[in-house]
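Check out a protein:
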Amino acid sequence: MVLRRVLFRRGDNMAAGNEILTMRRITKNFLGVRALNNVDFTLRANEIHALMGENGAGKSTLIKVLTGAEEFESGEIRIAGINQPVINHSPQEAQINGISTVYQEVNLCPNLSVAENFFIGRELKKFGVIDWKTMNKKAKKAFDDLSINIDVTLTLDNYSVAIQQMVAIARAVDISSKVLILDEPTSSLDDSEVEKLFSLMRKLRDRGIGIIFVTHFLEQVYAVCDRITVLRNGELVGEYAVENLPRLQLVARMMGKEFDDLAAVKRERSEGAVSDPVTVIEAKGLGCTGKIKSFDLSISKGDVIGLSGLLGSGRSELARAMYGADKADSGELEMNSKKLNIRSPLDAMQAGMAFLPENRKEEGIIADLSVRENIILALQAQRGIFRLISKKDQEEFTDKYIDILKIKTSDRETPVKNLSGGNQQKVILARWLLTNPDFLILDEPTRGIDVGTKTEIQRLVVSLAEQGKAVMFISSEIEEMLRTCSRMVVMRDCSKVGELSGDEITQDNIMKAIAGGGSV
């Protein structure tokens, strides 16, 4: 589904001078790193303004400074209607001043009703008792006004993530009617849900609200935004009208160089092809009841095999069955011509496999440990508790991969939770590369990270294949796999329904196979 760019007549409300928020010369130092350096940002009423930049560019820090989650060293913030510069000391104070934020992970209570969530912390009372009737009535009207047709008396967990996002947005707007910050709100939504969210955003814009939209999806920026501010390395690159900044130029400004890397990845993939493949891992009738139907799959040295399919098609389940994260109950698995008995991920690790999971925050990083501790985890697990890695070796290993993968961190001892999402992903990659695996499973390795880091990871995947590694690459972005993969496995309804290779790997063939129309 192609998101539509909907054009609206620009009136006086979009003219300069209708600023609803101005941030000037904002500087913030964080853990020894200058996170923001004299950054300016301007938001006008009646606009959706994209805040763009690679991971570590300063987007999150600018939002935290604005909302009071972090203090800043110098600069000033002004909000329309307030006669003096504003310093928000907390998100609650920011709300009082007209600024609300909705994050990717909806921070509401699923066991409470929609109306309760809408009024949480500001319940309406009559004679000292909560007035449920009035709360339900007012919540219903608020949602009707935004064309959100839901039963406000039902608990929130009855609704999809998209509807929950809209409830959070409606609540934020009801609390604060000036500035709405949407931080990666579309990462967990499908195309139809994204369109519904965009429709709501446009309605709010037309009411005079200024919206700051933080996203990694370029297509969405051009579908819904009016202006773009680009940050790089904590500094302002520029502010642009959407129609004056083509996508290629946007990416170039985000990365700080002219950008032909995506095409280069494809060329490198073709030029690095292995002429005489040697099988690394082979599954024969492998399956896991209730999760993935029996499948055959062979992966060779130098192979980057992509798993393509819709959400719920069984891509992650196939990978987890091979790695032992879900124990297979049928079939067999061979690696380097030896039969394996994979009872757990540790067995897979000992056999020479590596697995970068889809959910890096819950299954990948250990947030409170340092970059160093996260990187050496898998190698230490391989060696066992009686062969401890010396502190000196740990530091050498860590510094090596910080340099190789260009991990942006002030120090190897920095808690990994303080790194940007893209750099956290690189830490997990470093962890597995340190074990020198023969077979790597990368499940959505570029989800939620910026274009530049995506390209770095794609180049790394191609490089690993050239070194003779076998790689399984799972991505929801077909174009990304077209650039990176040498073969493509198509999944549908928890089954492997076909394979494509060579000239067969086209977007048209993949879509036909996923939809069940056309042979593979």
User: Anything to note?
Assistant: The chain has three domains: 17-98+176-259, 261-352+438-520, 362-436. The mean pLDDT is 84.
